[in-house]
Every structure is written in C-alpha cells, then in structure tokens.
Amino acid sequence: MLRETDIILAIESSCDDTAAAVLKGRKVLSNCVANQEIHKAYGGVVPELASRAHQSKIIPVVQQALSQANIDKKELTAIAYTQGPGLLGSLLVGSAFAKSFSMSLKIPLIPINHMQGHLLVHFIEDERIKSPKFPFLGVTLSGGHTQLILVKNYFDMEILGTTLDDAIGEAFDKCGKRMGLTYPAGQSIDRIAKIGDPNKFSFPISKLKNYNVSYSGVKTSFINFLSNSEQKDSNFIRNNMADLCASLQFTLVQIILTKIELVAMDKKLNQIIIGGGVAANSEIRNQLQKKAKSKGWGLFLPPIEYTSDNAAMIGISAYYKLQKKYFGKLTDVSDARLKFTQ
User: Fold this and answer.
1) What values do phi and psi take at 290, rounded to 5?
2) 184 and 275 assigned to the same domain
3) C-alpha neighbours within 13 Å on the C-beta side of residue 221
4) Helix count and strand count (H, E) for the chain
5) For the chain, what is the largest distance between any 2 Cα atoms, rounded to a whole number of angstroms?
C-alpha cells in the first residue's frame, strides 16, 4: 500500500549540481539546487573541482531544503541519494552524507539510479504533470547520456538503444565551445537558433541500422566545417552564428527523433516520455509535439525545473522503492557506470 505520509530527504550529486529535495508522498515540498559556476572558466566540468564544491555546498543545500519544506529532520522517514551513474568523486560526497545522516537518524537509506530518476520524475504529484501508463518508451537526453529505454514498470527498464560515443548534450556543448559560447552551451544555442535558418548549413545524420545513435560524426563535421570556413573568412562564425546554431540544433534533434520514431513503431509503443537536461530544448519539444500529433503518440514532457539534475527525481524514485522496502546498506558502493537494477 502506497503511503502518502512518508517524508523523504533526497540528495543528488552525480555531476556539478548539488541538490536536495524533500517529498511528502509524491508531492515535492522543496527542490533546491546549488550550481557550480567555477566550471564555466574551463569550458566543461572538472571532476576534482566538482567534488570539492559538493563538499562545501551539500550541508547548506540540505538545510535549505528542510527549511523550505518546513520539515524537521526528526520527521524524515528515509534518506535517498544518487548511487550512480555520474562522476565518482561527486557521487561519493552525496553517498557519504546520506549514509551518515541515515545512520544518525536511524532511518532507511535508499540508493537511486540517476537515469531512472529522470524518467520517474513524470510520477511526481503536480498539476502540470500527467503520469504515463506502463509500458512506455523512455528517452533520456543529457550531457552524459542519450538512451532509449523500454519502461515496463517503476524499476523494470531495458535499454534498447544508446549513444555509441558522445551524448547529445555533449555534442551541443563541444560545438558551442568551438563557436565561443560559454559552457554549458546548449541553452545559448537554443536561444540563438530561434532567429536562424535551420536549412542554411547541412551536416551528416548517422544512419545506424539498430536503435543506437552516434553524435561524434556530426560534431567532428561541424568543427571541421568551422575551421575550413574560417580559413576563407576569419569572421565566419560571428557573421553566421544564428544560422550555425539553428542548423546544428536541427541536425542533433533529427538524429534522436528518427530513432524515437523507429523504436515506437517496432515495439508498438504509443507513449513517449522524455527526461534529462536536454529535454528542456525548445526544438526537441516542438519537433516531438509535431511528431506526436501526426503519429497519435501520448507525449510526456517534464516541467523545465525537472529536466536538469535535481533531487526531486531522486525523491520520487525513492518513494516507490520505500513502498517495496528496497533499502540500501552502508556498504553499498557508488558506481560511476551504474546499470539499471531494481
């Protein structure tokens, strides 16, 4: 029986965002995130700096989450944390804090798979969110992952396809860096692309026969195209920024859109659920909405605040694990390449 009175403190520290949330049942009482601005200077996440930043931010973020939720730590039912996948040093900070806190309060500890959390965010109790019915096609799009997943129930998930090299978010960031945009570049590309022509420049779309995708080819082609063009015109990027962003974004989106359509047809799945930081991209949302209308799909897009790494998605995953008493142990290890389990 699902209990709506359970209060869970959730901690997310898989990459460069230190996050904590408090959920009562499936309702989010607070969802706090501390970003790490230091990585902008390096054009990408520096693992050592990320783990150090987590150490300084985790206690204030947890305190903020409890305060906003108006919850005393003694009212907590369980502590959830991200076990993986992610940067090992970052994961260790979150797991160490969660284990210590659960041990001091003598309450259950619940390890969570980060990627499952991105999909289960669609089961949060929120008037903006309509929950799908099993089974469905889950698509995770982020800086570190691009996956197409058959979701049979809350914890029975099968990866049907994945990126063979770069993730879609990584392709956005690396190409954006080459154009001189600040990390993370995805949001800037999305904004600038709105005034550009997506058909101005053409870049290759990988044609793998299975459900996997590849983004290294388009990334390399785009970067080489810029280098060759700059040899003829040193101001090429500045003079064509909007069209470059629009053309790049169009290509990156078409690669995953093609695979989504293929999997949905082959597996006879008519519910498409999107999660991950790149799920906030306006082109992906627009193209998916058009495709869903023409194909008769049920399309589920999360509110923007639940797309990027956040602790609410860890909390909702823990809610369902708590009902099944899928508890963790102090000896559980953080895993940078954690696979899907129960």
Assistant:
1) -65, -45
2) yes
3) 16
4) 9, 10
5) 68
Does the pLDDT value for residue 191 go beyond 50? yes
Q: How many domains does the chain have?
A: 2
Which spans in the chain are helix H? 47-69, 88-105, 114-120, 168-178, 186-193, 216-232, 236-266, 282-295, 312-324
Name the least confident of 63-72, 186-195, 205-214: 205-214
Q: pLDDT for 286-328, tens place per residue?
A: 999 999 999 999 999 999 999 989 999 999 999 999 999 999 9
In the structure, what pLDDT confidence band is assigned to residue 54 with cuts at 50, 70 and 90? Answer: confident
Of how many residues is the chain composed?
342
Interval 194-221 mean pLDDT: 94
- Whether residue 131 lies inside any domain: the answer is no
> Using an 8 Å Cβ cutoff, are 148 and 162 in contact?
yes
- Residue 188 is assigned to a structural domain of this protein: yes
Backbone φ/ψ region at 157: left (φ over 0), alpha (ψ -120 to 50), beta: beta
Q: How far is CA 342 from CA 49, 320, 339, in A?
A: 32, 11, 10
With bands split at pLDDT 50, 70 and 90, how would you rate the model's confidence at 209? confident
Select from 271, 335, 338, 303 the least CA-distant residue to 132.
271
Residues 296 and 314 in one domain: no
Would residue 331 count as lying in a domain?
no
Burial class (CB in 10 A: 0-12, 13-18, 19+), 133: exposed
User: How wide is the angle at C-alpha 208 spanned by C-alphas 206 and 209, nearest 5°?
Assistant: 150
